[in-house]
Amino acid sequence: MFCVLGAYTLKGDKDRYLASGMYGYVSKPIAVDAMRHEIKGLVSHEFPRNLAA
């Protein structure tokens, strides 16, 4: 499981990271609500059986 925290982000970075297999993305400056949303998504994500071990 991967979530990206980007320090120097460019337009399109979020889409590129998510397309490469990341499960979440938050860029700086960090908005608390955005971070909470990404964490909730990560902990509630249903993984394929072979990754859940």
- N/C terminus separation: 12 Å
How many beta-strand runs? 2
List the secondary-structure elements in sequence, H or E: EHEH
- Count of DSSP helices? 2
3D shape = flat
List the strand order in the largest sheet.
Answer: 1-2
How helix-rich are the residues, as a percent range? 25-40%
Mean pLDDT: 75
The biggest sheet, with number of strands, parallel, antiparallel or mixed sense and barrel status, is: 2 strands, parallel
What is the CA-based Rg, rounded? 12 Å
Task: Give the strand content.
Answer: 15-25%
Low-pLDDT parts are 49-53
Q: What structural class do you assign from the helix and strand content?
A: alpha+beta
Furnish the topology, listing elements before pairings:
Layout: E1 3-6, H1 13-19, E2 24-27, H2 32-44
Parallel strand pairs: 1-2
Structure description:
A two-stranded parallel sheet has the order 1-2. It has 53 residues and is an alpha+beta fold. The two termini are 12 Å apart. It is flat. It has two helices and two strands; from the N terminus they run E-H-E-H. It is 38% helix and 15% strand. Mean pLDDT is 75; it is low at 49-53. The chain has helices at residues 13-19, 32-44, and strands at 3-6, 24-27.
